[in-house]
């Protein structure tokens, strides 16, 4: 039997004569007399059949439920939405992707607070599920554990979703036939799980583990595996331990924890979306984190993992050699992680890593510290007259460190995509895609289709692409996103014209429009803001959302 200390919230809902109606309702969904005396744990499931990333999560939610109940709690499963980036990519529907992060966070917060759950297990699979789950956990600040739904297994010939996007570009170039494209389409996605490289889902799962909010190795398990089922069950048990010790996200999410997450993302060669999402999570947690923190940490942390999209290996191949735990131990021993950070195990990061074995000899997926892929971060924060408040580039070094070319300007992704496929974009161009920021989109769409088309056409080293939108974790090439202020609010990107010279200098962290300042000011005087939506979800989002350099959150200025 539990005392009220372990039922800090649920006791307000079910104790006393006056709450007999509440108990009556709960009896109908399976509560017994004994259950009312147990801590109640919400299990937030992001199950959905709209995407393979989440199609298996109901089973994981049931595993988490069994873990909670076996540990002496009463689990209650509830659902929230998901949006498939891979399916909506390149369409107007992609505008709702980043919006869904806020909807997910709001909905989990709403249900958990309304029902009076004492603890929380959240299970996310697709890109925006994960930061949305964690933002809700931090807002609620109740004992909580995050579970990653797991990565997909490779398709035939080690294909994945990016293989399909790049095959579209190859088809436009004439290098991929109709039959070959159909074969890639049919064989790239073999079943459940999140996209298989170090794209946004696997990046954020790794970052959340490094933050200390998921159990060790939760980020590195196949979606369909006994280890993932066990991870879910153990998460249910762990949240009861956190309730009893009164360990909350605010006890875990220190500034040092965010520095650990940034270091791990860099070492893994992770997605630019991690910048946006970690800023948003830090805002929810009340931790002071800025774009320049990524630069500061990036100067001393190397890229070690040779993972797709810019590298050679898939997440399943990293899993096969031990996941991210040996990498984290390497970083810890080199003084690149803070070992004293508390985690959801109730132990510190250093204690969790103490017994971790190194990677097997001869493996090629993760390089040693003395032979990095890149000696500093691939996530480069740029400033300049095109991005006065910052932009985020993904520069692995394979593309080079400097690019200068003439602008080809497009108002929106569709126009740019058509130009790339029909051959209007040629070597030496800087493709400018604007009015795709958080307010301007609205929704800050990802540009995987254009970047993949550029790669598929063999222009990856010869064409740069810049935008106030985002990039998928699957994007690679010479790409710069998150340009702020965005074009829709009068940022300098709005004033670029075809033929203008643009220089991207990753070594000096600069992005410049090579025109006189007077000309830039003249163009600004003649600019008119585009029309914005007037009703519905996107209209609300556009009015509330902050800049990408602040995480694109919707509660910053309330």
Main traits of this protein?
globular; 3 domains; alpha/beta; 558 residues; 21 helices; four-stranded parallel β-sheet; Glucose Oxidase, domain 1; Rossmann fold; eight-stranded mixed β-sheet
Would you give an account of this structure?
This protein is of the alpha/beta class and 558 residues long. It folds into three domains: 39-153 and 191-353, Response regulator (Rossmann fold, 3-Layer(aba) Sandwich); 154-190, no CATH class; 379-530, IlvD/EDD C-terminal domain-like (Glucose Oxidase, domain 1), CATH 3.50.30.80. Helix content is 38%, strand content 13%. The strands form two sheets. Strands 5-6-10-9-8-7-11-12 form an eight-stranded mixed β-sheet. It has a four-stranded parallel β-sheet with strand order 2-1-3-4, with helices on both faces. The radius of gyration is 23 Å and the shape is globular.
**Considering DSSP H and I runs of 4 or more, what fraction of the residues is helical?**
25-40%
The end-to-end distance, rounded to whole angstroms, is 42 Å
Tally of separate helices: 21
- Beta-strand portion reads 5-15%
* Order of strands in the sheet with most strands: 5-6-10-9-8-7-11-12
Structural class label: alpha/beta
How many distinct folded domains?
3
Instruction: Give the CA-based shape.
Output: globular
Count of extended strands? 12
What is the CATH architecture annotation of the largest domain?
Answer: 3-Layer(aba) Sandwich
**Arithmetic mean pLDDT:** 95
Cα-atom Rg, whole angstroms?
23 Å
Low-confidence stretches: none
Kindly report the name of the CATH homologous superfamily of the largest domain: Response regulator
CATH topology of the largest domain: Rossmann fold
CATH class of the largest domain: Alpha Beta
**Which sheet architecture does the biggest sheet show?**
8 strands, mixed
């Amino acid at each position: 039997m539990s005392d009220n200390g372990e039922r800090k919230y649920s006791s307000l809902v079910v104790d006393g004569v006056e709450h007999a109606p509440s108990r009556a309702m709960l009896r109908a969904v399976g509560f017994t007399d004994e259950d009312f005396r147990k801590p109640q744990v919400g299990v937030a499931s992001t199950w959905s059949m709209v995407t393979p990333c989440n199609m298996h999560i109901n089973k994981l939610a049931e595993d988490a439920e069994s873990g909670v109940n076996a540990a002496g709690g009463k689990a209650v499963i509830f659902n929230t939405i998901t949006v498939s980036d891979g399916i909506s990519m390149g369409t107007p529907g992609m505008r709702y992707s980043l919006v869904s992060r806020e909807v997910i966070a709001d909905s989990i917060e709403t249900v958990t607070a309304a029902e009076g759950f004492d603890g929380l297990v959240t299970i996310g699979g697709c890109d925006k599920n994960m930061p949305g789950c964690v933002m809700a956990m931090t807002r609620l600040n109740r004992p909580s554990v995050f579970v990653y739904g797991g990565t997909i297994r490779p398709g035939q010939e080690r294909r994945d979703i990016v293989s399909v996007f790049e095959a579209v570009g190859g088809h436009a170039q004439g290098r991929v036939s109709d039959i070959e494209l159909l074969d890639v389409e049919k064989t790239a996605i073999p079943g459940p799980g999140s996209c298989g490289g170090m794209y946004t889902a696997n990046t954020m799962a790794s970052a959340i583990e490094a933050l200390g909010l998921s159990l060790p190795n939760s980020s590195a398990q196949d979606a369909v595996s006994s280890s993932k089922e066990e991870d879910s069950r153990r998460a249910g048990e762990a949240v009861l331990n956190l309730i009893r010790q009164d360990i909350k996200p605010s006890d875990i999410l220190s500034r040092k924890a965010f520095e650990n997450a940034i270091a791990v993302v860099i070492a893994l060669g992770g997605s630019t979306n991690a910048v946006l999402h970690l800023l948003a999570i830090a805002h929810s947690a009340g931790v002071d984190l800025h774009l320049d923190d990524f630069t500061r940490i990036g100067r001393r942390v190397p890229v070690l993992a040779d993972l797709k999209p810019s590298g050679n290996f898939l997440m399943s191949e990293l899993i096969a050699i031990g996941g991210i735990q040996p990498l984290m131990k390497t970083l810890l021993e080199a003084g690149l992680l803070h070992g004293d950070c508390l985690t959801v195990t109730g132990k510190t990061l250093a204690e969790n890593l103490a017994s971790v074995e190194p990677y097997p000899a001869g493996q090629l997926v993760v390089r040693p510290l003395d032979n990095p892929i890149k000696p500093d971060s691939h996530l480069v924060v740029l400033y300049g007259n095109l991005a006065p408040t910052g932009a985020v580039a993904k520069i692995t070094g394979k593309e080079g460190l400097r690019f200068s070319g003439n602008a080809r300007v497009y108002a929106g992704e569709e126009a740019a995509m058509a130009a790339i496929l029909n051959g209007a974009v040629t070597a030496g161009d800087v493709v400018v895609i604007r009015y795709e920021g958080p307010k301007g989109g609205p929704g800050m769409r990802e540009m995987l289709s254009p970047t993949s088309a550029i790669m598929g056409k063999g222009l990856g080293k010869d064409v740069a692409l810049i935008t106030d939108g985002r990039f998928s974790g699957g994007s690679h090439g010479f790409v710069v996103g998150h340009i702020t202020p965005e074009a829709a609010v009068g940022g300098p990107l709005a004033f670029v014209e075809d033929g203008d010279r643009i220089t991207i200098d990753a070594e000096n962290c600069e992005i410049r429009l090579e025109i006189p300042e007077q000309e830039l000011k003249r163009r600004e005087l003649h600019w008119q803001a585009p029309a914005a939506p007037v009703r519905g979800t996107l209209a609300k989002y556009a009015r509330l959302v902050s800049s990408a350099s602040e995480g694109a959150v919707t509660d910053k200025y309330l």
